[in-house]
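Any chance you could type out some protein's one-letter sequence along with its backbone structure tokens so I can compare the two?
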Amino acid sequence: MNHKALAVCMIDISSDIRRKSLNETGLRPISNGVLEILRVVESHPGVTVAEVAARLGRQLSNVSSQLRELVAAGLVTRVKDASDKRYVSLHPTEESRRIKLLLEGAWAEALIAASARLLPEERAQIAASLPALERLASFLSEPEASLPQPHPRSSGT
């Protein structure tokens, strides 16, 4: 498998889907960084700021700053633990869920339009690969610390 070509293709598809679908939603643009944080909070309600930073491999201060934007926009709520006020969990709001549904629908529409130009066999190949791609996405979404490090290449000695 050509991992570099696959990675570039996936990034290109992701960027193009976001660009083409944004106009369809009527939403104001959401930066990739903020969207990534929002998606982590939506996928893992109750997650902490530190856990979001670890999952995304980012600095805690940067994530905290972007989370303040999401809280101010009414897309994330912070909930203090009743027994330990230092512990704060993050939760998506109804507005966040509404935006998620809008975006996912627009992303699907962009893919539907583009895939209509593929051959039926090509659409079938993509459909057949979806379970493997979903597993790959789940592995990639794990916190950075738990991702296996690549093995050093043999020096030939």
In short: Strands lie at 76-80, 88-92.
